[in-house]
């Protein structure tokens, strides 16, 4: 049993899903930026159908935020960084690192 009290963001994807593959870099970036306050786990629904069923995943990609052993947030389909930030903010200690705005400015700069 883990004593880690950080919320867990579970990213359900699949290799055959274009939207999920496009969100992988966004989720990886989030995992790096928020590692002090958030755990992130990627799950391939084809490799782990039992977890997809347990979390009632019907759409790929799906993000599920787990805190204190309960799902406290959920986003289905391809979503933007600001929508993810909006879901996370009430459940993380302190302010969200400016990862969403830094991604947007890098995108505009072509990076």
What would you note in describing this structure?
This protein is α+β, with helices and mostly antiparallel strands and 111 residues long. It is 36% helix and 23% strand. It contains 4 helices and 4 strands. The chain has helices at residues 18-33, 49-54, 81-88, 99-108, and strands at 8-13, 39-44, 62-67, 70-76. Strands 2-1-3-4 form a 4-stranded mixed sheet. Strand 1, helix 1 (18-33) and strand 2 (39-44) form a beta-alpha-beta unit. The protein is globular and about 35 Å long. It starts with 7 loop residues before the first strand and ends with a helix. Mean pLDDT is 86; it is low at 107-111.
Order of helices and strands: EHEHEEHH
Name the beta content range: 15-25%
Order of strands side by side in the largest beta sheet? Answer: 2-1-3-4
Mean pLDDT: 86
How many individual β-strands? 4
Termini separation (Å)?
A: 40 Å
Which value, in Å, is the CA radius of gyration? Answer: 14 Å
Count of alpha and pi helical runs? 4
Low-confidence stretches: 107-111
**Helix- and strand-based class?**
alpha+beta
Task: Give the overall silhouette.
Answer: globular
- Helix content percent band: 25-40%
């Amino acid at each position: 049993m883990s004593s880690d009290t950080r919320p867990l963001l579970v990213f359900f994807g699949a290799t055959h899903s274009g939207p999920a593959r496009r969100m992988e870099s966004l989720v990886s970036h989030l995992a790096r930026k928020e590692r002090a306050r958030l755990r992130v786990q990627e799950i391939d629904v084809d490799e782990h159908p039992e977890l997809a069923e347990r979390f009632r995943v019907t759409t790929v990609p799906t993000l599920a935020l787990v805190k204190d052993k309960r799902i406290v947030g959920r986003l289905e389909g391809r979503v933007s960084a600001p929508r993810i930030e909006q879901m996370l903010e009430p459940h993380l200690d302190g302010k969200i690192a400016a990862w969403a705005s830094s991604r947007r400015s890098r995108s505009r700069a072509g990076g």
